[in-house]
Amino acid sequence: MIFFSAIDFFYVAFIAALLVLSVFSICFILLLRFKSRRSRHLQNFNSLWTVRFLFVIFIILWSLTEVLRLPSFRRFYLYPLFPRLTLPQQANFCKLHLVLSLGFFEPGFLIILLFLLDVSVKKTTHKSFFSVFYVFASCLPLFLLQVYFVFLGGFKVRLPQPFHRSWFIPDMDHGNEALVFCDYPLLSTILFGLFGVIFILCFLLSFWKVVSQVINKALKLRIFALALTILIGLPLQVLLMGMSAFWRPDKPTYNGIAVTVFLITFTFAAVGEGILVIKPIADSLAAAVALVEQRPLRENGQGDDERSSPPPPAEDGLTATKCDA
User: What domain count does the chain have?
Assistant: First the structure.
């Protein structure tokens, strides 16, 4: 039991750090939203605030579902507050976690990540309604497929247990005191893997379009860091999730694989918030401050060369400007 408690503490610590980063990101988004009302230079860049806010919300919801699936967390923190769940209810809880995590929240923030990368090379400004509709419409097929195979039991009779096992009861637990461990069924992993293949192809197309147009070296470095994280992490995540189906969730090997899968998704979220939310908003605010500081100089005739002043923040999913710094 000590091993699992240490694993649970590891999860909770990293999720708490991600939640703090997410709250910090929301503060940046709201600050930009407030500043844009007073600065016309920030209004174009601020048009993506809804998408960025939704990006952070998806990450927060994914984090909370990861906490709630931990057996020790449910035993010590949820059961004293709520009626104890029966075994079928715990099994349905694991199924719900699986559908929300692999079918909605993680695909959702990955799709928004791709959207923010793709919109950075487009000159047109996307409406908030279109952006939100695009995200939910893109998540819907995978979500419905996960619901069908996890809850409705598609092909369950004709496939071996690792293909559809979404929960597991360890041998050491018996009767009403049993705790259900959540698992990744191989069929759900295959569905998520198909999503990953399509996502990576779309990501590569957007990546090459952005890299071909960016001349800022620091920005290009951030784009390559984001691409490296996605192109290595996502296939590795799918591979490890597929391997985990052949071990029981109460085995150390399974827990090692599950921790690695969690860290990969954690990295997606943390890198995405840093590169697509915090850094571009900080750049846009700094550019707006520089414009305000140079305004008195231009009024006094000391800054006639407008090329020396930084350009106003443009609509960009990665940074405030696309020019060379």
Answer: 1
